[in-house]
Specification:
alpha+beta; two-stranded antiparallel ribbon; 2 helices; 2 strands; elongated
Amino acid sequence: MASNKKNLVPEARAALDKFKMEAASEVGVNLKQGYNGDLTSKQAGSVGGQMVNLMTPQQQWKFQRTNRNVNGHMMDINFTMVVGL
């Protein structure tokens, strides 16, 4: 399938470029304007991953329950769940 790189909102290009530069600086990757073909896959992936992390809100829930099935003993069990929306 052919890729369609046409922007739905052409005015958003400058904002996306600024966002990409900010995400790159947060993970310590030195991006320059234009072509960045000298980046490793790890560096490029870390920039994209940081952008997704910043765009995706996360919710974290912590709860505790008591396990009564431990041979007559009471044992607290802690759960932490992170959900990306």
